[in-house]
Amino acid sequence: DPERVAARGDTFSALTSVARALAPERQLLGLLRRYLREEKARLRDLTRFYEKVLSLHEDSTTPVGNPLLAFTLIKRLQSDWRNVVHSLEASENIRALKDGYEKVEQDLPAFEDLEGAARALMRLQDVYMLNVKGLARGVFQRVTGSAITDLYSPKRLFSLTGDDCFQVGKVAYDMGDYYHAIPWLEEAVSLFRGSYGEWKTEDEASLEDALDHLAFACFQAGNVSCALSLSREFLLYSPDNKRIARNVLKYERLLAESPNQVVAEAVIQRPNIPHLQTRDTYEGLCQTLGSQPTLYQIPSLYCSYEINSNPYLLLQPIQKEVLHLEPYIALYHDFVSDSEAQKIRELAEPWLQRSVVASGEKQLQVEYRISKSAWLKDTVDPMLVTLNHRIAALTGLDVRPPYAEYLQVVNYGIGGHYEPHFDHATSPNSPLYRMKSGNRVATFMIYLSSVEAGGATAFIYANLSVPVVKNAALFWWNLHRSGEGDSDTLHAGCPVLVGNKWVANKWIHEYGQEFRRPCSSSPED
Ligand SMILES: O=C(O)CCC(=O)C(=O)O
Ligand SMILES: [Fe+2]
Hints:
Number of helices: 15
Strand content: 15-25%
Bound molecules: 2-oxoglutaric acid, fe (ii) ion
Mean pLDDT: 91
Strand order of the largest sheet: 3-4-5-16-12-19-10-9-6
């Protein structure tokens, strides 16, 4: 059963898996509802007993003279109270709750999911320059200087608690990433301060925990005075904590030794990811989504109906928008219908597995590609054969196996993305050559969904970002006519800010296309 193949700790990497996690939570809600009902009944009965005995005591004439009352007093003290105090009902109720929890426990997200989801929030914060304070209040705003841009306006505001923010900060803190830990822990401290004394059962952390972590993060970031004032605040709440008291002394000594630390607030850098030198361009392209020039206004680019002297296309032309010439990138509008897109998602869904990337000869799960994907053989459904014919008609290329790969269907996760990469092999050992049909000469990528915000396809060197257009397909050549990889095709799937993004890739290989895309010895072609 493919539904059960999904490994634990792999919920965050595809939005369909996240949606599936709603089911165990509904079960838990049912369990808690039942527990509350039983406990309310139990407390009602206890209250009844309490009020009955109390009313006897509040009677001005203590009626021990009445033998009936005298008897019941003796009975209560000999038996009733024992039965009340030793009642097993409370533990039976909690046992039923715990047993029910244990039954669903193996279906619940693991700690890796919490980490993955927290890193997703930090990624969105970075790439879209979102403000943590805003995120915690439920708004998706970019704040640059005095300008505030709403990147997405939710219909209903959903805000985070102090404990929510603490958990995000803690994930960064545990990775030694104080750049991200600090704003999230600051938000946690501020929210915990606002609700001090209101203990919540579900919370893992308290104001003290947040102060403790934030103080250390500030210290690590070189801000001793901030570490000192937070530690002093901590001692107001827990004056007996020896470790924090020692830290206060240490910070005071450090500040006395080099008082300029008081003013010199260290600015810590966002951790740099070495494989991403193109990061600034990439993030810029992800952010400018929607502000691209109207491309067909550029004379060399145009919109047309693709006929390709193909009878199929004559009957049902598809609108083509050429987005870029070198490298050649074109968008085919309404390449699939809504029902075809839905069908492809449904066919793939049970087979989705964490996406991997080629690294030398190996396939690895990596932070820079967060999605799940599935390969759909053409034999899975006749509709896939129809789709191949349509791709062949539009591109003029041979997409029969082994000249093209099976359809790869991708579903992105929370903040899911695919950082700048090439689709073609850049190393002779690449697993891509196992098909023995050469390199990936072209990519045909279909958008199977829309998204609410984010998720554009960004071409780094072509300086182009294509917003997700549901049912459209994006085509580009990965190789020059010489067979050389075109390094200008470096591209990425921007993090999905809001929504459930699905795409499907058809990778077309070099062999089989010799007469369809004649080669050339000029490296520019
Ligand atoms: O999702 C996107 O927009 C790009 C996906 C991509 O580049 C890929 O899957 O290779
Ligand atoms: Fe790609």
